[in-house]
Amino acid sequence: MSRTSIVAGNWKMHGSRAENASLIEAIAAQFPSTPQAECVVCPPFVYLQEVARLVRDAEIPVALGAQDVCAEGQGAYTGEVSAAMLKDVGCGYVIVGHSERRMGYGEDDPLVARKFAAAQAKGLIPILCVGEQLSEREAGRTHEVVSRQLDAALELCGVEAFARAVVAYEPCWAIGTGHNATPEQAEEVHRFIRGRIGARNAKIAAEARILYGGSVKAGNAGELFTQPDVDGGLIGGASLKADEFLAILAAARR
Ligand code: PGA
């Protein structure tokens, strides 16, 4: 099964207009003429439109993603941003259920599933983040936690929705810590996720892109990305450095 990998940069709450411009300029200066993977950047909401313009002007094939979306369509939801708005400013992707939102902003599985649905309803590809905390891994509950997170979206939207979605396995203990999962640990959970989707639809599971996230760097991307069920990465810290990000992109396989 050949799946085109994705390397997505999650900029989190970093950047400024000037920093974004220099980052995109540096990425464009060395962007491969035949990239092995789809490349996505996810800046903060306020910079989406400008980063879209920077990427367009630089003429590089980099897609735009947001870091979150409102589960509601439109209306009196002060401070929220809808899927239609994200589409309107040029997004193709949106991260939903990142662990920083689950843990810091009380987002639970039903809410994340509704965000997943809201994104798809407007033609965005959700990047659904799943992953266990360290205590859950140590208690042998990784599969149980990941299943629960995955099943919420599978049950609300149906397995067919996963033909137009990306899953990101991000063990919480690996995010921003410098301690990435080993390639074997990542592969084991990726295979489990693919199997869980496959129990409902084998073809959709075989085609689904499952990204690994958590302390991916230029130095470990290659060994992670050669695992059979790892189809690229969701990159935090290293996506803010052009050299690192491009090296990670180069490590992705088709
Ligand atoms: P990190 O973050 O690469 O800085 O560990 C990954 C993420 O949170 O998506």
List keywords for this structure.
single chain; 254 residues; alpha/beta; TIM Barrel; 8-stranded parallel β-barrel; 11 helices; 16% strand; globular; binds 2-phosphoglycolic acid
Indicate the overall shape: globular
Approximate helicity band:
40-55%
Give the amount of beta strand, in percent.
15-25%
Unreliable stretches: none
Distinct ligand kinds: 2-phosphoglycolic acid
User: How many domain regions?
Assistant: 1
In total, the number of strands is 8
Using the coordinates shown, work out and report the CATH topology: TIM Barrel
SS summary, helix count: 11
> Nearest-angstrom radius of gyration?
17 Å
Distance between the termini: 10 Å
CATH-scheme architecture: Alpha-Beta Barrel
Assigned CATH class? Alpha Beta
CATH homologous superfamily caption: Aldolase class I
**From N to C, what is the helix and strand string?**
EHEHEHEHHEHHEHHEHEH
Structural category is alpha/beta
**Mean pLDDT figure:** 97
The major β-sheet equals: 8 strands, parallel, barrel
Biggest sheet: strand arrangement? 1-2-3-4-5-6-7-8
